[in-house]
Specification:
The complex is a heterotrimer of chains A (137), B (120) and C (98).
Chain A: E1 3-10, H1 19-28, E2 42-49, H2 63-67, H3 72-81, E3 85-89, H4 90-96, E4 117-119, H5 121-130, E5 133-136
Parallel strand pairs in A: 1-2, 1-5, 2-3, 3-4
Chain B: E1 3-8, H1 17-30, E2 34-39, H2 61-70, E3 73-78, H3 79-84, E4 97-99, H4 102-109, E5 113-117
Parallel strand pairs in B: 1-2, 1-5, 2-3, 3-4
Helix pairs in contact in B: 1-2
Chain C: E1 2-7, H1 14-19, E2 24-29, H2 35-38, E3 54-58, H3 59-64, E4 76-79, H4 81-91, E5 94-97
Parallel strand pairs in C: 1-2, 1-5, 2-3, 3-4
Classes of the chains: A alpha/beta (137), B alpha/beta (120), C alpha/beta (98).
Chain lengths: 137, 120, 98
């Protein structure tokens, strides 16, 4: 029985490319990975938003209304619903003047209990050091 | 010898990042390592059969066939990404598998090194 | 951590690189990242070369863009794909692409 921890570090703006969407959908795929692994083995993702990537965390995304696309907001909520660890860089939020109340911090409306965490970059750096593999999107 | 898992999102045509990923795979296999190769997003184009080689566009089909023949290289395309682009199972090049994203996550579990090349 | 960073662009990614810290850092210049090793912008070498790291540049990507080893900053070692594989497996425990 073993657990491998993977960091999904999102630095890309949403929508122009698929990068942030794919980071979240790949992270969510960790929930069904057991079919390929031995009993008890797990892949545990941690999702981190840094730099321009913090824009993915803004509330009230209307991608479904305007483009018929599942929003990044919905994928973030699904991540929280599945209890994935989601970290958002405080310094980058401060740089853009984004306050916590503008962010997707929970998935209570769909029954989630886990909350996103706003943390200093140093905490994200610690996660990057702690995981087995790092991926930047 | 180790195992390298490469994930790539970049398009076959319009970016050289996928060429880099395939050349890196080739170099790793030559040194005796095994490679799991995962393509999502526009990189799923790499798995499509019937590609014609032109000098102005990246052409990697022949290299991939040589890599498959080594037995140390396996490649899988994201099924949903391929279907969304109109590539059905019948359009897939010999040697490729198609799975959902959990295949990639599972591959990272036993990988010694993971390199994710996001989209351009 | 021992971190290898594939730097694939010239004008983006430096912000990420500047914040990364690692006990051992290797920066492998590939694709358009090779310009960090070869071009002086307004007479100055790329600021990423001032970072405390080991620098490498991929020979194939240098040559494809009209450069050779004589054009490369003295802080940067020219490497092949095979060398890159060895760096990944022997020198750095995690690798990222930016």
């Amino acid at each position: 029985m073993a657990t491998r921890r993977l960091a999904f570090v999102i630095r890309s703006l949403p929508y122009k490319t698929e990068a942030s969407r794919l980071a979240l959908t790949h992270a969510i795929a960790s929930q069904t990975v057991e079919i390929y692994l031995e009993d008890g083995d797990l892949v545990e993702p941690v999702v981190c938003f840094i730099g321009d990537g913090v824009m993915n965390c803004l509330k009230n995304q209307q991608a479904m209304k305007n483009y018929g696309l599942t929003s990044i907001e919905q994928h973030m909520k699904n991540s929280l619903l599945l209890d994935l660890k989601v970290l958002i860089c405080k310094e980058d939020l401060d740089k853009f003047g984004i306050k916590e109340d503008a962010l997707i911090m929970d998935a209570e409306d769909i029954g989630g209990e886990t909350k996103a965490q706003i943390v200093p970059y140093s905490e994200i750096q610690k996660e990057m050091e702690a995981v087995d593999h790092l991926q930047f999107f | 010898m180790g195992k390298l898992t490469i994930g790539c999102f970049s398009s076959l045509v319009g970016s050289l990042s996928l060429d880099f990923a395939v050349k890196l795979s080739e170099a790793a296999v030559k040194k005796g390592h095994s490679v799991d190769f995962w393509v999502s997003s526009n990189a799923t184009m790499l798995s499509k059969k019937g590609q014609r080689a032109f000098k102005d566009y990246s052409a990697l089909a022949k290299t991939l066939q040589e890599l498959f023949a080594t037995g140390k290289f396996q490649a899988t395309a994201c099924e949903a990404c391929a279907e969304a682009r109109g590539y059905g199972k019948e359009d897939t090049m010999e040697g490729w598998k198609r799975h959902s994203m959990d295949w990639y996550l599972a591959s990272t579990f036993s990988a010694d090194r993971v390199l994710l090349i996001g989209g351009d | 951590m021992k971190l290898g960073v594939f730097m694939s662009d010239f004008k983006t990614g430096s912000d990420v690189l500047n914040r990364l810290s690692a006990e051992k850092l290797g920066i492998i210049l590939v694709g358009n990242g090779i310009y960090h090793a070869t071009v002086k912008d307004t007479g100055k070498a790329s600021s990423i070369l001032d970072k405390s790291a080991n620098f490498y540049v991929l020979a194939e990507d240098l040559e494809s863009r009209g450069f050779n080893s004589s054009n490369v900053d003295s802080r940067v070692k020219v490497v092949t794909y095979g060398d890159v594989v060895d760096l990944m497996f022997n020198d750095y425990e995690k690798v990222i692409w930016i």
